[in-house]
Amino acid sequence: QVQLVESGGGVVHPGRSLRLSCAASRFAFKSFDMDWVRQAPGKGLEWVSFISYDGTNKYYADSVKGRFTISRDNSKNTLSLQMDSLGPEDTAVYYCARMSGGAIHFYMDVWGKGTTVTVSS
Amino acid sequence: SYVLTQPPSVSVAPGQTARVTCGGNNIGSKSVHWYQQRPGQAPVLVVYDDSGRPSGIPERFSGSNSGNTATLTISRVEAGDEADYYCQVWDSSTEHVLFGGGTKLTVL
User: CA of A74 to nearest chain B CA: how many angstroms apart?
Assistant: First the structure.
């Protein structure tokens, strides 16, 4: 069935960088907008970033704007999140999610299992 | 900025009806979506566009949205419904996804 698999998480020192990837399978990846959502330990869901199906539109939460960069490679069915200048507040499980609905109706109908990022000295 | 407000917790006995609310200024003019997240698992979409139900989601899950409150209703609650529930909208003015703070549903 439709699947999203995240990778790239790990333990990193404050100020360093990390790159997350999300491999999509069994659906037309190039036709869907995609998101990254994170969840800090014991906290709720926090939207991180959005990228349109063709990569032309990118949006970021204020908490990561200027530090994180979302991208995609439709030829490889892969979504990425480059995270720079990481701080302890970025410690979380990071999920990639497929967006459906469009326009004002955007919702996430497929989620990966997540990858854990820990920022600690 | 737009804010979605959910009660931290809701408790219900098995077989009863649970209602989880999501408050926001004129939220009735937006499309509201709901996610279920069981402990240690990824979120799952249970209601989209206020009242739509994805394939595979039981008919016991329903939604409504009017005025300043959207509601997720779970009928005939089962032990397996115990989870965190999040509402979500798309804020077109900021082009951001917004989540409510989440509600922990406890089945007594």
Answer: 23
